[in-house]
Amino acid sequence: MKWLVKKFQRTFFFLWKTALYVCLLWIFVGLFSIPNPPLSRPSRTLAVTLLTFCAVGIGMTAAYGRFDIGRRKSKPIIYSLGLAVFITDIVTYVQLSVMNTNPDNNATLKFENAGLLIIVVGLQIVLIVLMTYLGNYFYFRMNRPEICCVITSSENSLEQICKVVSKYKKQYEIKYVLDYRAKDLFDTILKSHTIFMYDVPVKDRTEIFEFCYRHSRNIYFNPEVPDVVAFNAQHVVLDDVSLIQATVEELSIEQRFIKRMMDVVISIAGLIISSPIWLVSAICIKFEDGGKILFKQKRATKNGKVFEVYKFRTMKENVTNYSSTAGDSRITKTGKILRKFRIDEFPQLINILKGEMSVVGPRPEMLENVYSYTAELPEFEYRLRVKAGLTGYAQIAGKYNTSPRDKLILDLMYIENYSVWKDIKLILQTLIVLFKGDSTEAFNKDDDIGFMQYSEDKKIINHNNEV
Question: Which residues, at least 6 apart from 63, have a Cβ–Cβ distance to it below 8 Å?
Fold first, then answer.
C-alpha cells in the first residue's frame, strides 16, 4: 500500500511539473500568436519558435535549476525558474523578430512588441509563483519530515550542521544528536530515516557509512579533499581488476585558450555595458567624502602570484583593513549599496582583461587570510592551482562568511570538475546571488571562523540522545 501511494505521488508531481512547463510555453506562443498569425497554425515560424523555446528552456533550467518541488524551498525555485524563463523568453523573442524581417513573411511582429513580452513574462512569473507554492504545499502535506540523526565530533560542529539543517524543517526533523563514539550509535541510527555526519574522522565515517548503506538509511556527510578528488574519478578495469582512476592535471591547452578568450570577450563587453554604472558609482563615492574612487589591495592568484585587485572603495579612507563585520561602521552609505548589489566588484573586469584574474575561479583572498588559513589548513593552498575569479562556485553556493574550510571544498569541487559548460553555468548562476539576502552577510564579531577541533571535555548529547 505504501509503495502504491509513493507511486501515485511521483505520477502526480510529474504531471504537475509537466503542466507548468506546457503552460509556460502556451502563454508565450498563445499571446504572441495575436500579432503573429503563423504561430496559431502549423508553420515554419511555429516549428522554429517551439524548438528555440524548448532548447533554450532546457539549457537555462539545467543552469539555474529545475522545478524541483519538495527538494528546495519555494523562493529559490521561483528565483531560478523565473530567471530561466525570462532569458528563454528574451532569446525566443529575438529569434521570432529576426525571422519576421524576411520580406516574404506577412507577419508584422518586430521589436515594437516589447510591451507584449513584458506581459508574457509577468504572467509566467505569476504562474510559477502559484504552481511552486501550491506544489510544495501538496508535497509536504503528503510527506512528513524525515526523522534525522546528526552524528558529529564536537559541540561547535554540532551547532554548525544543525544551524543549516534546521532551515529545512519541512524536509528534516532532527530527533537525535550523537557523538560518533557513542556506544548506542548504531541502535540510534536504526531509529532514523536520514543520517547527517559532520566532522567525523574518515575511518569512523566509513564504518558508519557502510552500516547506513546496509540498512538503507539516507546519508549526508561533509566531504574531505580526497572525497573531492574521487568525485571526478573514473572507473577502469585493468585485466579483471576494478580500479578508480583519479587523474590530477592542469587545464589542457584548448581549455586554457577557450577560457582566456571567454575572459577577454566578457570583460570587454562588461566594461562597455557597465560604463554608466561606473560613472554613477564614481560620482556617488566622490560626492560622499571626496576620497579615492578605487581601492587597491594585494591578493593572491594562480601559483601564489601576488597582484593588486581593483574595487570601488566602500569603506572610509585610512581605516584598518580586515574582514567586515555585521553593522561595520567603516562602510560608507554608498558602500553599503555597492556591496549589496556587488557593484564594488566591477573594476575587477580590468584585472580580468589584464590576465591577472579569470571570470570564474576561486575568489582572491587577502594575503593575511591566505597565510592564516593555510597555517590552520595546509590544503587551502590547493585553491591557488588556478587563477582567482570574479565569481565562483563558493560565491554562488556559499556566503561571504562561509568558513574557510567549506570555501576550500566548494572551490576544489570547481577546480577538479572544470569544464567550459561549468564556467557558463556559473556565470549564469551569478545572477541568482543578487536575490540571496545572505550572500553578502558579514562575519559577526563573535563568529568563530577558525577550524573546529574535537576536545574530550565537550559534550554534544544529553542523557537520552534526543534533541
Answer: 84, 424, 425, 428, 429
